[in-house]
Amino acid sequence: MISTRNASMWTLLYVSLFAAFAYHVQAGVVIESVDGSNSTKGCAKNYYGENCDIYCKENERYICSVNGTKICRNGFQAPEQDCMLDTTPNPECPDDGDCINGFCRAKTCVCNPGWRGRFCHIQILGCEPAPGPCLNGGTCRHTSGVERFNCFCTPQWTGRYCETPLQPPCTPRDDCSGHYTCVGNNKVCLPGWTDPSRDCTVRTIPQPNDPECPIQGFCQQGSCFQGRCCCNQHWDGLLCSCKKLYCNDRPCQNGGACRNLEDDYSCTCPPGWTGKNCDQRTSNV
Known about the structure:
Blueprint: E1 2-4, E2 10-13, E3 21-24, E4 47-48, E5 54-55, E6 62-64, E7 70-72, E8 76-77, E9 85-86, E10 102-105, E11 108-111, E12 115-116, E13 122-123, E14 139-142, E15 149-152, E16 157-158, E17 164-165, E18 173-175, E19 178-183, E20 186-189, E21 193-194, E22 202-203, E23 222-225, E24 228-231, E25 235-236, E26 242-243, E27 257-260, E28 265-268, E29 273-274, E30 280-281
Antiparallel strand pairs: 1-2, 2-3, 4-5, 6-7, 8-9, 10-11, 12-13, 14-15, 16-17, 18-19, 19-20, 21-22, 23-24, 25-26, 27-28, 29-30
C-alpha cells in the first residue's frame, strides 16, 4: 500500500510486511493512501483519464486536451474520426480531386481505416483486396455479418481495424529512459526522480550540486545519471547542449528522404509509400 500526505511529498511503498522503501512522488501518481484520502494517478505517456484508458498522441491533424480529447488543428475537423476530414483547399491533394474519406499528402490520398481507392471513395466491406482493412499486422477474416470481415489484432493493438494501441504493462526500470518501480500498472518514481507522466525522468536534485553529474560539467538540457547526461526530448550531445537531429537515426524507410524540423522530422516518400516513416503502402485504384 502507499501512504501520501500530499502530491508533492514523500510516498511510502510497503513492498511486504517486513520491508519498506521510500519513493518521491509528484502530482499524478498514487492509487490509494493509508488514511483513505484521495490521490491522483500518473498515466503512461499519451494515455489519459481516471483509469489511464484514453489514448491520444498529437500529430499533424490534432492535439490532445488534458483529459485526452482530440482537438482538431486548423483545416481539419471530425475529432471522432481522428480529425481525418480535411476542410481547406490543400495543394497536396491530387490535382483532379480531394480525399473523401482520408487526408492528402504529397498529391496522394491517405485513406481512413475501412476505405481505399485513389480518392478514398471505396468502402472496404471484406478482406479483399489484400491485405484488407486491418492495420498494424492484424489478420482479416471473412464473416457473414454486415461488414463481412473481422480483424484479429496482434497483442499490442485493438479496435475495429486494430488501430488503437493497448497500454503496455508497467515494467520497472532505472536508466535514461525512466527511473521507477511499478504498483499494479502505475509508475512510482525512485528516490531522486519525479514526474511519472514522463517516466520519472526529471531529477529532483538541483544541478550542478548533483553528485551524479559528469565531472566535466552539468547537463544543460537533461538530468544527471551515474556520471553522464540523460537528455530531455529533442536534445542531444554529451552535455545535452545540442538540438537533436532526428534524420541521423535514418527513420525514413523504403527510399524516403528525411528533412530535419525544429523538434521533429519529415519524410518525403517515393511513389507507392506513405506514412510518417514511409512504411505504409498507398491504396490506388
